[in-house]
């Protein structure tokens, strides 16, 4: 079957765009896993040695300097602190959603309340929010506005469903071990 010139271009263009999108998602997943594992290693090292805050700060600063010299600015002290917030907010690797980018997770990690964080995570995936839209929604207090319209003492069903799915996925992953 011979395609017209415009159809040929359009078809090939679509293949290229889909491939780039898949590659981006794969790289993003590896990046997120790398950042999560880095912080896990640091936490395990801290718990195995001294747990004093001063020791931890000095270690993190030294590590950041060494990593930055070797790998560039993505491993500076600020980003190691972002990795810390990320690991603390999402301590179970298998519960992470690969549809989201590192920037999404960085923004979500700054939210202290777990239910609020889960709301923005769920909505980011369901509504396909990019990180700018997620930031806009957080800044505009979208979660608080939704809460105002919910019956009192009744959690958001989509959040409950996500938590239950993550719990089941975690249990299945642990059964396989």
Quick rundown:
By secondary structure, the protein is mainly alpha-helical. It is 76% helix and 0% strand.
Number of helices: 8
Number of domains: 2
Unreliable stretches: none
For the termini, the CA-CA separation is 50 Å
Helix content class: over 70%
What's the overall average pLDDT, rounded? 85
Strand content: under 5%
Computed CA radius of gyration, to the nearest angstrom: 20 Å
Which structural category do the helix and sheet elements fall into? mainly alpha
Element order: H for helix, E for strand: HHHHHHHH
Principal-axis shape: globular
- Largest sheet properties: none
The tally of beta strands, per DSSP, is 0
Please describe what this structure looks like.
The chain is mainly α and 177 residues long. It has two domains: 1-89, no CATH class; 92-177, no CATH class. Helices cover 76% and strands 0% of the residues. It has eight helices and no strands. Helix 1 crosses helix 3 (77-89) and helix 5 (114-126) crosses helix 8 (157-176). It is globular. The chain starts with a helix and ends with a helix. The relative contact order is 0.07.
């Amino acid at each position: 079957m011979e395609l017209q010139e415009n159809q040929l271009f359009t078809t090939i263009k679509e293949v290229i765009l889909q491939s780039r999108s898949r590659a981006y998602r794969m790289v993003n997943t590896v990046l997120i896993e790398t950042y999560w594992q880095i912080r896990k290693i640091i936490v395990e090292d801290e718990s195995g040695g001294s747990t004093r805050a001063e020791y931890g700060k000095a270690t993190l600063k030294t590590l950041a300097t060494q990593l930055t010299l070797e790998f560039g600015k993505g491993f500076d002290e600020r980003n190691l602190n972002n990795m810390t917030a990320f690991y603390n907010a999402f301590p179970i690797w298998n519960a992470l959603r690969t549809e989201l980018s590192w920037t999404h997770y960085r923004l979500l990690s700054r939210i202290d309340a777990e239910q609020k964080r889960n709301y923005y995570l769920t909505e980011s995936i369901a509504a396909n929010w990019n990180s700018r839209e997620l930031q806009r929604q957080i800044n505009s207090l979208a979660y608080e506005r939704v809460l105002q319209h919910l019956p009192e003492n009744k959690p958001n069903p989509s959040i409950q469903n996500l938590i239950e799915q993550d719990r089941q996925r975690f249990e299945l992953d642990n059964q396989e071990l």
